[in-house]
Amino acid sequence: MASTPPYSFVDEQQALDDAVAVLASSPSVGVDTEADSRHHYPEKVCLLQLSDGARTYLVDTLAGLDYGALGELFLDRAVQKVLHGADFDLRGLHRDFGFTFANCYDTSIAARFAGIERFGLASLLEEVLDVRIPKDQRLRRADWSRRPLENDALSYAASDVTHLPELRSVLHGRVRELGRELWVAEECERLTEVRYTPPDPDTAWLSVKGSHVLDGRGLAVLKALHDFREAEALRLDRPPAYVLPAQALVYLAAHRTAPIEDVPGMSATLVRRYGRGIRAAVKAGTSSPPLQRPRPPQPLFPRLTREEAARFTRLKRWRAGLGVDLGVDPSILWPMRSLERLARAPGSLDAECASVEVRAWQRERFAGLLRRELEG
Questions:
Q1: pTM of the full predicted structure?
Q2: Rounded to whole angstroms, how far apart are CA atoms 261 and 13?
Q3: Distances from the Cα of 35 to the Cαs of 45, 46, 227, in angstroms?
């Protein structure tokens, strides 16, 4: 187990400004966040961890400071921001502070291109750096919005970011030796385009798992239940699942006359707290006009013909073989949806190479091989 990394807890303006000044002179800075999605709704970033490997700062993002200097740091191309599984952190920081990033490096992306199969952060640190960090389930479920934070929680948060610059250095060396440096660079450059997009309140209910089995009347009830749950979650500042589990939403929409006490996922406590509102939502949805799912924005393709299906199988086998030869997950080598389109129209490779789904490195490295496969 790695020893507790040294860190500074930053909850005052001068300390924040000093930390940013120090980090701005570093070639790379690890970035991580902790949020409170298990305890509050909507979630928010509660802690921002920053480290150049030698100095680690835990920034209290609930302290009401002026965080503008952080935005400048994140956009400074001279400082590479190192993250692991960057999408969540980038979206949260954009949502809460409007931050956007330049010059990012995602160690989970680099690990995949290096052929490492277990690329969770704890597994990766152990395999690559022989560093073991604590993964206490209690701390993973902690309410990061509570103050003061306990020392073990702060140590836990620091351990996630302290080793990122060194991890990046080792992984970068590996992908460079494999000739995949530009592959990783292109994938990481795309991270600078990540933005938070709020869900559309008029259609969010359609994303409830299992809703595809409902008829028009069931969809109307589902929407009423979803609206009730959303309003209660916002009123109580609690995650929606604490008000009404997703499985209960769909069950109630499909079994509108069932006693709510018998609904899967409904505890006696939930019935007592929200039973009246749930019954009212079911009644309102039942009396509303049936709803229909909007048509997909793109027309659905017909089923593959026998010839197309055989070609698709051959293309998938080709991609899988590449993955074996290169020692990487084949899914990163060429988009599956592109292969399906090529199975239908094998002469459309040039159009596929120009699509946004196909990366420049994929086109340069594999388009020639793919063309020969299609012509074979």
A1: 0.93
A2: 52
A3: 4, 5, 24
Interval 158-174: pLDDT, tens = 999 999 999 999 999 99
User: In terms of Cα–Cα distance, which of 280, 278, 218 is closest to 250?
Assistant: 218
| Measured distance CA(16)–CA(5) in Å, rounded | 19
Residue indicated by tokens 């450059």: 189
**DSSP-based three-state secondary structure for 236:** helix
DSSP type of residue 32: E
Omega before 42 cis (within 30°)? yes
CA nearest neighbour of 357 among 376, 324, 331: 331
Spatial CA neighbour of 161 closest among 99, 119, 110, 107: 107
pLDDT tens sequence across 121-149: 999 999 999 999 877 778 888 999 999 99
Give the amino acid at 194: V
CA–CA gap between residue 23 and residue 52 (Å, rounded): 7
Closest CA to 40 of 190, 171, 146, 156: 146
Residue closest to 91 by CA, chosen among 195, 191, 198: 195
User: Whose CA is closest to 229, among 243, 242, 217?
Assistant: 243
C-alpha 348/C-alpha 353 separation (Å) is: 9
Residues 149 and 59 sit within 8 Å (Cβ to Cβ): no
